[in-house]
TrEMBL record:
It is found in: Nucleus matrix; Nucleus speckle. SUPFAM superfamilies: RNA-binding domain, RBD. One of its GO terms (molecular function) is RNA binding. Residues 1-18 form the signal peptide. Gene3D superfamilies: 3.30.70.330, 6.10.250.1170. Keywords: Coiled coil, Nucleus, Phosphoprotein, Repeat, RNA-binding, Signal. This is Splicing factor. One of its GO terms (cellular component) is nuclear matrix. Residues 58-130, 132-213 form the RRM domain. Residues 340-421 are annotated as: Disordered.
């Protein structure tokens, strides 16, 4: 309902302008100003949800402008269609460009202002050529508008990206990408022409070409046809059907035959191209599966190599541990042998020291000592009274060891004193041997 109301206001304004005023002259009527204000308030509602504003699709070409037109007059011409985003005027050639907020507003302005008189001239309003638009083809059936825009946004800001579909909504494999600037479109065209740009998993490159822009809305009106002599000659005869057997009919048939041959050849070429594409897709699918199998085999070989290398590292580590354990065991045995050898040496040294100490102290062998022991039970002691049976002469002035040499000392006390002194000397020798063994 709101769109119908807006279109009704537009129609009323258009009729008022055409019947009473020249475009560019503002009528001094209160009702028209109020109508215009209400119309401006609802202009934003003509935008589609998510539609970008002030794009190249909203840019109008205005031709046949008066030579003395100013920029302010040019803006007032489009004042009721919202705030313009871009204004350009070439007074010398009598044309200009203006960019409006949305495509719907541009279409309304074009419909209203085209062929409108202004200072004795009929204005010519057309949509400006989109110089930053590219045509893309060889698209996969699974490419959508959003994917197409996302893919080409790496080259620069995009105003519109659309995949062309047939009457059933199926992709035709073709699309249009409209950039916001020419450098971005040029960059995309060069990169895609020199390289291979893929949009999906299938290795199917996108073919990019400059968009061939055709005007299928306004076409060629009679007022714009060139009225040259050839035009006059061709228009002498009205439209008709050629009569059978006439000159016109014969050559018309030849034209139709030529067109039929072109059609057949085009169909044959299209069929050959379709067969070639199907064959290429089949080969590509087989090669893709083989490629995936090769990748799996390579990955398996890589994993096996990694596993073998890990096993080698593990074996090397185990070998190092075994060698370390063997070295530790060998070191332990060597230390034990050294300790045993050192202990035997210490025992042997102690034995030699005891023998040497016994030799220095004049100790005899126990058997020899027993043989030399007298009946009185003391060594080197004969008759305590100096009888003739004494084996050894007494030492010193008193005569022998014992009671005779030390009168006044009891025999038991004297024997115990000698044995205690000997034991002290033996203990001293043993202690010295132990200390020497510890130092070694």
């Amino acid at each position: 309902m709101l769109e119908i109301e807006i279109l009704g206001m537009l129609w009323l304004l258009a009729i008022t302008n055409r019947n009473n005023y020249d475009v560019g002259k503002v009528a001094d009527t209160g009702w028209k100003e109020r109508l215009l204000e209400g119309f401006k308030a609802n202009l934003s509602l003509l935008r589609r949800p998510g539609e970008k504003t002030y794009t190249q699709r909203c840019r109008l070409f205005v031709g046949n402008l008066p030579a003395d037109i100013t920029e302010d007059e040019f803006k007032r011409l489009f004042a009721k269609y919202g705030e313009p985003g871009e204004v350009f005027i070439n007074k010398g050639k009598g044309f200009g460009f203006i960019k409006l907020e949305s495509r719907a507003l541009a279409e309304i302005a074009k419909a209203e202002l085209d062929d409108t008189p202004m200072r004795g001239r009929q204005l010519r309003v057309r949509f400006a050529t989109h110089a930053a638009a590219l045509s893309v083809r060889n698209l996969s059936p699974y490419v959508s508008n959003e994917l197409l825009e996302e893919a080409f946004s790496q080259f620069g800001p995009i105003e519109r990206a659309v995949v062309i579909v047939d009457d059933r909504g199926r992709s035709t494999g073709k699309g249009i990408v409209e950039f916001a600037s020419k450098p971005a479109a040029r960059k995309a065209f060069e990169r895609c022409s020199e390289g291979v740009f893929l949009l999906t998993t299938t290795p199917r490159p996108v073919i990019v070409e400059p968009l061939e822009q055709l005007d299928d809305e306004d076409g060629l009106p009679e007022k714009l046809a060139q009225k040259n002599p050839m035009y006059q000659k061709e228009r002498e005869t009205p439209p008709r059907f050629a009569q059978h057997g006439t000159f016109e009919y014969e050559y018309s048939q030849r034209w139709k035959s030529l067109d039929e041959m072109e059609k057949q050849q085009r169909e044959q070429v299209e069929k050959n191209m379709k067969d070639a594409k199907d064959k290429l897709e089949s080969e590509m699918e087989d090669a893709y599966h083989e490629h995936q199998a090769n990748l799996l085999r390579q990955d398996l070989m890589r994993r096996q190599e990694e596993l073998r290398r890990m096993e080698e590292l593990h074996n090397q580590e185990m070998q190092k541990r075994k060698e370390m354990q063997l070295r530790q065991e060998e070191e332990r045995r060597r230390r034990e042998e050294e300790m045993m050898i050192r202990q035997r040496e210490m025992e042997e040294q102690m034995r030699r020291q005891r023998e040497e100490s016994y030799s220095r102290m004049g100790y005899m062998d126990p058997r020899e000592r027993d043989m030399r022991m007298g009946g009185g039970g003391a060594m080197n002691m004969g008759d305590p009274y100096g009888s003739g049976g004494q084996k050894f002469p007494p030492l010193g002035g008193g005569g022998g060891i014992g009671y005779e040499a030390n009168p006044g000392v009891p025999p038991a006390t004297m024997s115990g004193s000698m044995m205690g002194s000997d034991m002290d000397q033996v203990n001293c020798v043993l202690k010295t041997s132990e200390e020497e063994g510890k130092e070694e």
